């Protein structure tokens, strides 16, 4: 073998001596250069097969290596350093990007010679690498990777055994990963600590991302050394299984002869293939997990009862679920890409933009606003929208809205509010209207006791009867708040006559002008007539009742004669109302008329308004509430005779015939 030329770049005399001594018996010639510039000049003048750079005395080794490679691209370049301050054997690392390898300084002669001398085993490398590449082409799990590497290396004539170690970052350890422990006699059930110097081969392979080699005769500890010596193992190689982003573990290979450059290259190439396969499996697993998570989220969004939409930063609709489609009446295609102002009015958009701005200025990410949703048909659904802002790289990228229909809640709130108002009215009415007749009755009963005369008893009795009527009215109102709970066909004349008999009418007369059939709650309708009749009798006469016999008339309203006008009356049948069609009924008297102090007729129906000790009080309020419960509109006007006239008209569909 012809002598090869080795150039050592080092400023340390002892390092130069160590390397020269180690290469004394090798068929090489060793030259020394103290500075990189001298070495480069030597390369330009003389042929050199390999260069050794003393990393302990030469700074910026990567730059020196790059310069050397630019001068001699095929040059084998090694770095020599005493990484542990002399506590362990100095290490020689091959710095060539295409063929990185390490060995103890005592083995550097063989390492250098392997690098610069053609090997008879070079033809094994492509065959073994290609076999493993084909076996791993469809690998979908790390288990397959481990099995292929272990069985292929073990079956090869050039190697004795191989195993894969998984790197546990949290525990700072390498754990042998044998998927089929019964298939090997090697004692692989143990853990190797890294990071503390106890297992330098594994540690350097992981941390330097380069192939590490060692002889079983060296002083450096190797994994499973006892078992290796039993099997006459002469060399061990540890190659990292890693990518630029992740360390997966190591591939450890044992051979019964010193590892040649080709065999080390084979191990590195296999480790590179396995690393890419592990990376692909990991990425595929992450993608599958993300797809599963995304699918779950999509299913949750699609099946959510509340409407969900996603807007981009400009307010355009990017995503919607089925609930939004159902709520609005639009198709999915009709909404996607449109601006949010298709679903929300300008004031709602302004409130949402204000809320989003407030969220972006704070640490909060979500808030709730009221936002009426406008449907395709033009109706507005009262909704509550929970807004969540989307921020990417500290930039606002859009928002997510969860829309909940609160129609029923609003209805319940309104019902509760009306109920509370009713209770307030009850309190005012009971405290006022009951107190007055009660005070009168008590006063007259005291007169009876003082005078022992019974002439005041009828007056006291009338006050008590008035209290009883008020109590009946209050109970009628309080009874589940339904003003027309049991509707039936009721004859107008029959109901009015029955109610007249329930009232103390004195000398007043009832006249039924004409009749019609109403759809009404008979009990509530009787209460309307009783209250109107009682008010007419109690408040309709000025002065002495004997001088004027009050007449109360009840009859039907013709559309042409109605004070509302035919165009204001809704016909439930969908046809045109003729002027002589009945559209409601009236109650009119020829008494004193409506009190002058009421500025508006609507005040008559306010339970807080009263004109005298007896007061109109709850009576006319009950009339108004019963009318509303039947979808009737009640109006109060002055009659032709100067008395009071009350008209009831169907305004939400005809309930009469």
TrEMBL record:
InterPro entries: GAF-like_dom_sf (IPR029016), HATPase_C_sf (IPR036890), HATPase_dom (IPR003594), His_kinase_dom (IPR005467), HisK_dim/P_dom (IPR003661), HisK_dim/P_sf (IPR036097), PAC (IPR001610), PAS (IPR000014). Residues 293-363 form the PAS domain. It catalyses: ATP + protein L-histidine = ADP + protein N-phospho-L-histidine. GO terms for biological process: regulation of DNA-templated transcription. Keywords: Kinase, Transferase, Two-component regulatory system. The keyword Transferase applies. NCBIfam families: sensory_box. This is histidine kinase.
């Amino acid at each position: 073998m012809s002598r090869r030329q080795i150039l050592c770049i080092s400023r340390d005399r002892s390092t130069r001596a160590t390397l020269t001594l180690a290469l004394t018996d090798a068929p090489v010639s060793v030259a020394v250069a103290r500075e990189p510039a001298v070495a480069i000049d030597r390369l330009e003048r003389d042929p050199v097969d390999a260069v050794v750079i003393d990393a302990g005395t030469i700074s910026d080794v990567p730059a020196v290596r790059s310069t050397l490679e630019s001068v001699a691209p095929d040059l084998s370049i090694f770095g020599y350093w005493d990484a542990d301050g002399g506590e362990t054997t100095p290490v020689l690392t091959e710095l060539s990007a295409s063929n990185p390898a390490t060995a103890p300084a005592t083995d550097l002669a063989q390492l250098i010679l392997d690098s610069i001398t053609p090997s008879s085993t070079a033809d094994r490398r492509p065959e073994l690498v290609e076999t493993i590449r084909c076996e791993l082409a469809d690998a979908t799990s790390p288990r397959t990777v481990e099995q292929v590497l272990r069985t292929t290396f073990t079956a090869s004539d050039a190697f004795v055994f191989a195993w894969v170690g998984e790197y546990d970052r949290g525990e700072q350890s390498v754990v042998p990963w044998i998927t089929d422990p019964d298939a090997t006699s090697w004692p692989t059930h143990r853990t190797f600590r890294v990071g503390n110097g106890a297992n330098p081969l594994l540690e350097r392979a992981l941390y330097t991302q380069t192939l590490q080699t060692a002889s079983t005769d060296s002083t450096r500890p190797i994994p499973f050394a006892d078992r290796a010596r039993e099997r006459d193992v002469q060399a061990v190689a540890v190659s990292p299984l890693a990518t630029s982003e992740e360390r997966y573990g190591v591939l450890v290979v044992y051979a019964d002869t010193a590892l040649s450059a080709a065999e080390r290259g084979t191990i590195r190439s296999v480790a590179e293939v396995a690393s890419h396969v592990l990376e692909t499996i990991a990425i595929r697993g992450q993608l599958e997990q993300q797809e599963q998570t995304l699918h779950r989220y999509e299913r949750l969004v699609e099946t959510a009862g509340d409407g969900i939409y996603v807007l981009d930063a400009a307010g355009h609709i990017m995503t919607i679920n089925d609930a939004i489609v159902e709520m609005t009446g639009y198709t999915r295609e009709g909404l996607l890409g449109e601006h949010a102002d298709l679903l929300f009015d300008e004031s709602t958009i302004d409130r949402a933009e204000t809320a989003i701005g407030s969220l972006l200025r704070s640490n909060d990410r979500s808030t709730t606003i009221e936002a009426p949703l406008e449907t395709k048909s033009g109706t507005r659904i009262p909704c509550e929208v929970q807004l969540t802002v989307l921020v990417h790289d500290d930039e606002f990228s859009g928002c997510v809205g969860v829309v909940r229909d609160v129609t029923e809640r609003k209805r319940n709130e309104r019902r509760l509010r009306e109920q509370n108002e009713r209770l307030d009215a009850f309190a005012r009415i009971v405290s006022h209207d009951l107190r007055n007749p009660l005070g009168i009755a008590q006063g007259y009963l005291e007169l009876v006791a003082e005078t022992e005369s019974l002439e005041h008893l009828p007056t006291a009795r009338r006050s008590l009867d008035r209290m009883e009527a008020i109590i009946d009215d209050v109970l009628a109102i309080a009874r589940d708040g339904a003003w027309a709970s049991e509707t039936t066909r009721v004859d107008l004349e029959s109901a009015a006559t029955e109610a007249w008999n329930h009232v103390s009418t004195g000398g007043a007369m009832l006249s039924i002008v004409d009749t019609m059939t109403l759809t009404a709650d008979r009990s509530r309708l009787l209460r309307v007539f009783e209250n109107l009749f009682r008010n007419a009798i109690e408040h309709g006469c000025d002065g002495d009742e004997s001088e004027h016999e009050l007449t109360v008339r009840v009859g039907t309203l013709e559309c042409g004669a109605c004070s509302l006008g035919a165009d204001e009356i809704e016909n439930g049948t969908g046809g045109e109302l003729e002027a002589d069609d009945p559209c409601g009924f009236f109650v009119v008297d020829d008494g004193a008329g409506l009190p002058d102090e009421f500025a508006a007729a609507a005040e008559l129906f306010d339970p807080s308004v009263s004109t005298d000790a007896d007061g109109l009080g709850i009576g006319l309020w009950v009339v108004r509430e019963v009318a509303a419960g039947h979808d009737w509109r009640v109006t109060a006007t002055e009659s032709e005779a100067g008395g009071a006239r009350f008209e009831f008209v169907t305004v939400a569909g005809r309930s009469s015939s």
